Amino acid sequence: MNELERLNELKRIQILDSEPEEEFDEIVKLAADIFQVPIAVISFLDSERQWFKAKFGLDLIETSREISFCNHINFVDPKTLVINDTHLDERFKNNPFAIGEEGIRFYAGAPLVSSTGHLLGAFCIEDIKPRELSEFELRTLKSLSNRVFEMLMKRAESLLLDIEIVKNEDLIEKISDHSPGALFKFQITNDGDMSFPFVSKGISLIHPGLTPEMLKNNAVLGFNTIHADDLPKVYESIGTSFKTLTNLDFEFRITADDGTIKWHRAKANPEKREDRVVWYGTLQDITESKEYIATLEEIMFSISHIIRRPVTTLMGLVQVLNEEIISPEKLIELTGFFNKVASEMDEYTQKLNDVFLEKKVKVTTKQLVSL
């Protein structure tokens, strides 16, 4: 037996000194009823102690391993240990739990063995009077111990999964806190309660008046910043997504703490749960892109206005050419007008190109008019 490996197995399943759990408590009560014994326990053997995960009819939390009955189970080839009468067994004649009228006279312990063959503990029943177990009772005790082992493994797997989830959540939080904009988890219960279980730190960058903690504690704070004219549209979009599970994608204005108006865009995918709908999404500040588009629209309007004069002139010249018989002298005069208009257009487009290159398209109407 490798004691260090055995103790590492115990450490891995994280059972020692754990809080009481209902399913373990229930199975020892069930064993006491089935076998009609006053004591039933689930015990684990640490390096120097026997610790009870669940117990019925016993007030102790732990005992010294040296005087524990379970310590007499064969560690090399663990099998159910049955002691019909401790008073007739030399191993227990001086055991403090076996001596006296109220001492333990009967003990049966089915080993709890790890997948690697290490004895971790035992599922035990005890009585203050001698007795024997039938083959059926032995099989029943073994079946109960197998059930306990399955519960242990399920519990250990669940704990490991929880650890992985926490690690992943930490990683996700680190990534999201360095992502542009804000990442969020938003939910509405069937009763209409709204909450933000998760909001990344990016919310404070795009909206300095808000923090993740504020939104987690009060989701309404986020909606209070939305421009009054846009709030009905926002609620309508969320309500439709709640009913139809369609993706969210809408733009809205918010009022910053300094009174300025900014544009935000929310995108999120819904997921239906038993009692709620959960959205996972992003929130972006699109104020600059909105201003950029508005500037481009203004530029296009200004360009169309500015080139209207030379274009109109050109169209008039073309009409003259179509309607009049042109003398050589008149043709030379008209050609001069064409050249002048073409030169103006060429000069204007060149200046426009220079401004675009210099300002990287951050052009204002005032700049265009000055051309």
CATH topology grouping of the largest domain: Beta-Lactamase
Percent of sequence in beta strands: 15-25%
Helix and strand element order: HHEEEEEEHEEHHHHEEEHHHH
The averaged pLDDT comes out at: 82
What is the class of the largest domain in the CATH system?
A: Alpha Beta
Number of strands: 11
Poorly predicted runs of 5 or more residues: 359-371
Overall shape: it is: rod-shaped
| Structural class category | alpha+beta
Major sheet description? 6 strands, antiparallel
Q: What is the spatial order of strands in the main beta sheet? A: 3-2-1-6-5-4
Rg of Cα set: 41 Å
Number of domains: 3
Helix count, per DSSP?
11
According to CATH, the homologous superfamily of the largest domain is GAF domain
Helix residue percentage = 40-55%
The second-level CATH architecture of the largest domain is 2-Layer Sandwich
Give the N-terminus to C-terminus distance in angstroms.
Answer: 93 Å
